[in-house]
Amino acid sequence: MASTAATGFKMTVVKPNVTSPCRMFSFRSPISVLELKEAAQAKIASFGHLSSFQPISRSCTPGPMNFNTFVTRAMAGESDKGSAPGLPIDLRGKRAFIAGVADDNGYGWAIAKSLAAAGAEILVGTWVPALNIFETSLRRGKFDESRVLPNGSLMEITKVYPLDAVYDGPEDVPDDVKKNKRYAGSSNWTVKEVVESVKNDFGSIDILVHSLANGPEVSKPLLETSRYGYLAAVSASSYSFVSLLKHFLPIMNPGGATISLTYIASERTIPGYGGGMSSAKAALESDTKVLAFEAGKKAQIRVNTISAGPLGSRAAKAIGFIEKMIDYSYTNAPLQKELLADEVGNAAAFLVSPLASAVTGSVVYVDNGLNIMGLAGDSPTLAV
């Protein structure tokens, strides 16, 4: 896919690689150095990128007179053709699978919108018990307002797949889940089956987004968390990413990228964020580094995770004190403003785009800078 990014016209001063300091260029018709300098300056004036614009002063005697020579190297891109300057994120021709979208107010939805705005085709994996409500709301236009993209069009979701990433294959599904009425009417929703369905439908993908997390005992302190609750949190919130990447990797195009979502509780103690969820996020971040190495070596796939600040999504409300976390962030983060889901979505679009082609194995913080704070700005200990 050809890039549409306008690279601009960049001027840098360099030493000419010539044998004679007086013969910088050869022309079929005479042209003075002054004319060359003025032409270069005029060209630069029409662009916004200028680096080290200084003449090289040399003493040279091509006859009876001395003069200054001005040598430049021009790196011209699409802007030479009259296109707008800038570095637009262009994901046209790319296909993204976003696991974990069940409504229109979480980070998964925001990431889907940003990728769609950049031109990517959107496929969605929705938790099976939430599938019917999500598809019905989508079909009836309840999400139309939040589907609006920057250009005024509506985000299109090409296909919605039922997904429960806790189960790798149908052989892993226990009988009580198979008989659960919330799963009735849906089929082929384990990780292996979903990947096979995507392969049959589209052949390949370029982008994988993991926006899944669940801890059945998240409201319990770690000391009160059961083995079941702890392992369930790790299974749904971190191993699910390993499983998705493992199974999607064979149908991901080289140069593709993945994104997952983590939280600062992986590094710092967040009282109330329990049930093994902090452990799951720590595992996810560690896995990001290992998978970046393995997927990069095996298939040239980049693996990054975004440590996002608190958002008042429906899923986050299960924690029980999300509004207090948001207020704390607003008060104490270096950037004292509301954190928007779109800001996380835009960061994800950058990370999966060619603009981040050398970025992998990274934890990227999108939290208004709260992660850098070692002491709360509103702490009573700071009061005078």
UniProtKB/TrEMBL annotation:
GO cellular component annotations of the record: chloroplast
Enzyme category, top tier: oxidoreductase
Gene Ontology terms, MF aspect: enoyl-[acyl-carrier-protein] reductase (NADH) activity
An individual GO BP term: fatty acid biosynthetic process
Gene3D superfamilies in UniProt: Enoyl acyl carrier protein reductase, NAD(P)-binding Rossmann-like Domain
Keywords: Chloroplast, Fatty acid biosynthesis, Fatty acid metabolism, Lipid biosynthesis, Lipid metabolism, Oxidoreductase, Plastid, Transit peptide
Pathway membership, UniProt: Lipid metabolism; fatty acid biosynthesis
Pfam families per UniProt: adh_short_C2
KW Chloroplast (keyword) present: yes
Localization per record: Plastid, Chloroplast
Alphabetical list of SUPFAM superfamilies matching this protein: NAD(P)-binding Rossmann-fold domains
Entry keyword annotation includes Oxidoreductase: yes
Catalytic activity: a 2,3-saturated acyl-[ACP] + NAD(+) = a (2E)-enoyl-[ACP] + NADH + H(+)
EC number: 1.3.1.9
Quaternary structure (record): Homotetramer.
Family to which the UniProt record says this protein belongs: Belongs to the short-chain dehydrogenases/reductases (SDR) family. FabI subfamily.
PANTHER family for the chain: ENOYL-[ACYL-CARRIER-PROTEIN] REDUCTASE, ENOYL-[ACYL-CARRIER-PROTEIN] REDUCTASE [NADH], CHLOROPLASTIC
Physiological role: Catalyzes the NAD-dependent reduction of a carbon-carbon double bond in an enoyl moiety that is covalently linked to an acyl carrier protein (ACP). Catalyzes the last reduction step in the de novo synthesis cycle of fatty acids. Involved in the elongation cycle of fatty acids which are used in lipid metabolism. Required for normal plant growth.
Protein name: enoyl-[acyl-carrier-protein] reductase (NADH)
